Amino acid sequence: MEITILVVDDEPSMREFLGILLKREGYRVDQAENAVTALDLLAATNYDLVISDVKMPGLDGIALLGKIKELSPDTAVLLVTAFTTAEQAVEAMKLGAYDYIAKPFKVEEIKVLVRNALEKRDLKKENLRLKQEIQERYSFSGMIGKSKKMLDIYSLIEKVAASTANVLILGESGTGKELAAKALHYNSPRREKPFVAVNCGAIPETLIESELFGHKKGAYTGAIMDRAGLFEQAEGGTLFLDEIGEIPLALQAKMLRVLQEREFRRVGDVQTRHTDVRIVAASNRDLEEQVREGSFREDLYYRLNVVPLRMPSLRERSEDIPLLVENFYRKFTQGGSSAEMITPGAMKVLLSYPFPGNVRELENLVERCVVLGNRVITEECLPPQVVNYQQTIAPCAEFALPTEGMNLEAYLDDIEKRFLLQALEKSGRIKKKAAELLGMTFRSFRYRLAKFGLDEE
């Protein structure tokens, strides 16, 4: 593609000289005798490079540089002047000039500067293009991944985003359920309206009704004024109810009415209010199991579960780990780059680790390494429990007692925890099936999950 350069100088001889020189180098060249004419040309043509004199009548070269960066940020700018000062040079570079050259200059010098300026511009554009390509190919509204499971998630979100159907997002903690909810909202016709998120498990039971529906002044002690709830705050948009399984049974009936009738009342109010809100709910618990136990209403479950969306654990899409590491590395180094962001040994460790905390845990690991001052992620900057994971799950066939002795209880606990996690993964997080896989009662399985703190994952 032809490269276009604009030469701006109030001296006709300098414009003519640079025009001839640059045309011989194969560039298309336009000329302007002042900054005003240059801005008119820039408005009509996308120039790759502007070479401008600094001292000109009216708008000078420094002021023109600022206008160029507002009008066409990708255009490279090279300033030329016979009256150079250190202050001007510093100001020009701060404003985004590629370089600042003093007259008189050598022909070869200007040729090299022009080539370098264009190469830097091309490199910047290519980096931006590659970054956008990666984001388009392997991300969707903040979610990162190129595995089949993630591509299926993207496809499902695209299909249902435009509808008003309720969506229930299931998955372990740290798998990105809120990101999926945001993707549904920002790819829907409701994108210009509010996206309101609430963690139902983080609100005291006595306050959750008021939080969701609002309250009337005097409805209870402390209600000193009328207050709109989250349904009203999300009007026209999307309300994301995270940890929906934590809502008490008494409130579930009211929630069901809102979903069925699209109306509610503030606490202590007699006025019925109508609502136009799309509900996206999420849980890391087995809601079907809660329905069987009687702690979650079956009719509410089916009303929420119009479109089920299951977020895969990181163990199920380990091929996405390199891409996620790169994304988090750039995030925590403010877009920094390195030819080697992570050593092969460290990547091998991450690929073999089960990540019970999923993507959130991986993000924390990368942040830890960057905070510790590591420009390259190595095994040394990873936590010991991650690096030593393979050693702690040595095959059970290895019965030799170490000469230095061992903590048998801790060893057996680690093996037990490992099989509990595997059973959950193979059963699709359905605890009753997981218990059957391990040949134990459901009650015993629940007890062991609680023992290792796995019942909340």
DSSP strand (E) fraction? 5-15%
Strand order of the largest sheet: 2-1-3-4-5
Low-confidence stretches: none
- Taking all Cα atoms into account, the compactness measure Rg is 31 Å
> Any idea what the CATH superfamily of the largest domain is called?
P-loop containing nucleotide triphosphate hydrolases
Question: What would the keywords be for this entry?
Answer:
single chain, 457 residues, alpha/beta, Rossmann fold, Helicase, Ruva Protein, domain 3, 4 domains, 14% strand
Can you walk through the features of this model?
Helix 13 (321-332) packs across helix 15 (358-371) and helix 19 packs across helix 20. The strands form five sheets. Strands 2-1-3-4-5 form a five-stranded parallel β-sheet, with helices on both faces. The chain has a five-stranded parallel β-sheet with strand order 9-12-15-8-16. It has a two-stranded antiparallel ribbon with strand order 6-7. A hairpin with a 6-residue loop joins strand 13 and strand 14 (272-274). It folds into four domains: 4-134, Response regulator (Rossmann fold); 144-310, P-loop containing nucleotide triphosphate hydrolases (Rossmann fold, 3-Layer(aba) Sandwich); 314-392, Helicase, Ruva Protein, domain 3 (Orthogonal Bundle), CATH 1.10.8.60; 394-457, Homeodomain-like (Arc Repressor Mutant, subunit A, Orthogonal Bundle). The longest helix is centred in the first third of the chain and has 32 residues, at 107-138. The protein is built from 20 helices and 16 strands. The protein is 47% helix and 14% strand. With 457 residues, the chain is of the alpha/beta class. The mean pLDDT is 86. The chain is extended, with a radius of gyration of 31 Å. The protein has helices at 12-24, 35-44, 61-71, 86-94, 107-138, 148-160, 177-186, 208-213, 230-233, 249-261, 287-293, 298-304, 321-332, 344-352, 358-371, 384-387, 389-392, 408-426, 431-437, 442-451; strands at residues 4-8, 28-32, 49-53, 76-81, 99-102, 139-140, 143-144, 167-170, 195-199, 214-215, 227-228, 238-242, 263-265, 272-274, 278-283, 307-310.
